[in-house]
Amino acid sequence: MAEGAAAHGSVNPWVALAYLAAGVFFILALRGLSSPQTSRTGNRFGMIGMAIAVVTTLVTHDLATLPEIGIAMFLGGVVGVTVARKIAMTSMPELVAGFHSLVGLAAVLVGWAAYLDPGAFDLLVGDAISPVSKVEMGLGIAIGAITFSGSVIAFAKLSGKMSGSPILLPARHVINLGTLAAILVLTAMFAHTPGMEANLPFIIALTVLAFIIGFLLIIPIGGADMPVVVSMLNSYSGWAAAAMGFTLGNTAMIITGALVGSSGAILSYIMCRAMNRSFISVIAGGFGADDSGGGDGEPREQRPYKQGSAADAAFMLEQAEKVIIIPGYGMAVAQAQHALREMTDILEEKGVEVKFAIHPVAGRMPGHMNVLLAEASVDYDKVFELEDINSEFAQADVAFIIGANDVVNPAAKTDKSSPIYGMPVFDVDKAKQVFFIKRSMGGVGYAGVDNDVFYMDQTMMLLSDAKKMVEEIVKALD
Question: Which residues are designated catalytic?
C-alpha cells in the first residue's frame, strides 16, 4: 500500500498517525536542542522521530527490495560514521554546510525522479501530471538546487578553499532578480504546458538557473555574515523538503521540512538583528556588502598600545576574583578550547570565579562557540549569552578576549559611521583589566574597522597564536 498525495487517494489512518507521531518527536527535538542541558535528549527525540518516519515509509511504499534498502542504509551509515569521526569540531561549520548541500541535491533528484516516472509516485491524473503537482515539483527542484550550489560555496568559504571576502559582480542585484524572475516564469510554463517532451526544456532550464542563482547569492556574502548564511541554507533545505513532501503527498516530509524551514528562518532573523544586518539584505545576496568591508584590512591609524607576556597575564589572572572569557573565531582556528578549559580549571582551583560570554554570532555558524566549549568539557553552567552576562563586566577583574574582535568593539555603540553600529557588543571596556589575544595588530576583524579596546589604558595585548599563548599562561600558572 502506498501513501500518495491527497489528490491520489485516501491515506491510511495508521500511516497518518505514525507520521503525526514522528512530527511530535521532531518538535520535541527542536525544543530539546534549544538548550545545551537538554540537547542530548533533543537528539534522541529526533532520532526516534526519524526512525518512525523512515520505517513507516519503507513499510507502506514499494520502493525497493529489502536487500537494496539494507545496502543503501549500510553505505550511508558507514559514510556518516567515518565523517563524524574524522571531522574536527573546529570544522563543524563547513561540515554543516556540506550536509545542507546533500539535502538540496536530494530534493533535486527526487523532483527529477518524480518527473521522469510520475506513475511510480502516484502523480498521474489521467495521462498527465496535474499543474499543481508540477508547481510543487518545480519549486522543490528550484529550492533544492539553490540550497546545493549555495551550500557548496559556503563550504568553500568556510574551509578556506575560497576567499571569505565578498565577491561583488557588476549589477549583481539586477542579475539575481532577473534570474529569480526567470525561474518563476519557467515554473509557470512548466506547470501549464502539457506533454513530457514539451515540458523537458522548461524543467532543464529551471534546474540550471536555480543552480546558478544559488552560486550568485552566496559569493557576495563575506565571512562576517557566514553564521547567517549557514542558518539560512538550513532553512532553504527545509523548504525544499517540504515542497517535495507536497509533491509526493508525504506528511512526514511536509512536517519536517516546515519545522526546519521555519526554525532556520527565525534563527537567521534573530542573528541578523544581533549583527545589525538587514535580514532581506543578507538573504538577497550581499546587499550592502560593498559597505561592510573585509577582514584583512589594516588599522586606520597607528596608536600606542601596551603589550604583555604570558607571565604578566598569569600573574594578574591568579590575583583576580572574577574573570569573564570571550571566545571568538580565532579560538576555533587555533583550536585553543582545550587549553582554555585547562586554564579555567587551574584558576578555579586558585579560587577565581570564571565565566564564559558567548555572542550570538561568534564563530562561523549558530552556536559555534558553544559546540567548541562543550567539546572541551566546559560546564554548561559557566556559559552565558550576551544579555545574561553583559551587566557583570563592571564587576569583573579581567575580561579575557581570545580571538574575538567585532563583538567587543565599542564603536558599535558610539560611531554611527561604523558598519557595525547598532550591533549589541560586550561591555569589556567596563572591566578593570582586559587581556586581548590576537595574532598581530595588523588585522582588524571582518568588519574592517579598528577597535578602541586595543588602546585602552587597562588593555594588555597578548600578540600570539591563541593556543600557544593560553598554553604559556597555563605553564606560568602552574
Answer: 406
